[in-house]
Write a structure and sequence with these properties.
Elements lengths: L30 H10 L10 E6 L5 E8 L5 E7 L10 H13 L6 E5 L4 E5 L8 H4 L2 H15 L10 H14 L7 H17 L6 E3 L8 E3 L4 E3 L6 E3 L1 H11 L4 H12 L7 H29 L6 H15 L3 H11 L1
Antiparallel strand pairs: 1-2, 2-3, 3-5, 4-5, 6-9, 7-8
Helix pairs in contact: 4-8, 5-9, 6-9, 6-10, 6-11, 7-9, 8-9, 9-10, 9-11
Length: 337
Amino acid sequence: MRRALGAPPPTVSGQAMTETAEPAPAVLRGELRDELVRAMQRVPELAGADLTLTALSGGITNRNFLVEVTGRRDRYVIRLAGNDTHLLGISREVEHAATVAAAGVGVGPEVMAFIRPEGYLVTRFIEGSPVPDEVIHRPETIERVAASLRRIHDGPPIPGLFVPLRIVEAYRALALARGVAIPPEYDLAAAIGRRIELACLAIPVEIRPCHNDLLNANFIDDGQRIRIVDWEYAGMGDPFFDLGNFSINHDLTPDEDAVLLAAHDGVAHRADRDARLARLTLMRTVSDFREAMWGVLQQGISTLDVDFVAYAGEHFERLLAGSTTPAFERALREVGG
């Protein structure tokens, strides 16, 4: 799921609808409803049940429907892949495995079924609330997000790799093959990416399970823990990309980044905290590069009425602005030694 920089988050988050949500959408009817209901007859918990489906808002690379069962309180979500999402590096098999792993550590939604060959993912609906921007910046909320991320990063390995600077190269090649003009900012951004990569190679980190798409709409507060949904970009990768991705997506300040990292690390890594904070800073830039090139590739594959040119441009602009600051140069020196 994506939204433009500066746009307000949706009032219905991936799987959590609240009392402040927009009026409920119309019940799904017709051929798609019949197809989904037939598929869910293969799920033991839903076989033979009377099912009502309504669309959940948001989603560019997927569609999500709330599934309610007549006579029961339990609710579920069925998730459908968008067209050509494999070109974005999305594997629905990996997404399924990652969601199972995330559920196992108490962060992701419980997986009820993965319906093959259609690739429909059925999860239990998370009852909770979105985490609005004014709340996400509170130190206690940042600490709760960090605790959930640490559960993921310390969890069992998942299939798939996520290497963002290789992903942007793949996005460029795929966009060119579809006739998309590569923005002139790409070459400078790629040079900045190479500087970051060289610096990070000086102090390699162990790859860990990562979410890699920590937009605000993917967080749900269930009252006890910050839960995370939408695991379609998950894979083994640099946990600092998750931290930087969360930071840049929520416009965290340097002080808030320090809170995030301290809560994520706990008592460990105090001796090298400055270098680790610098790595987080660099990954904010890498996150924007991935996001910009995601917008470029979408220009060649998406049929939605979304201004992906502007979306990519906004992320390139922020990337280039952030990478010309003294703080960025200090971070490079701190990480690269």
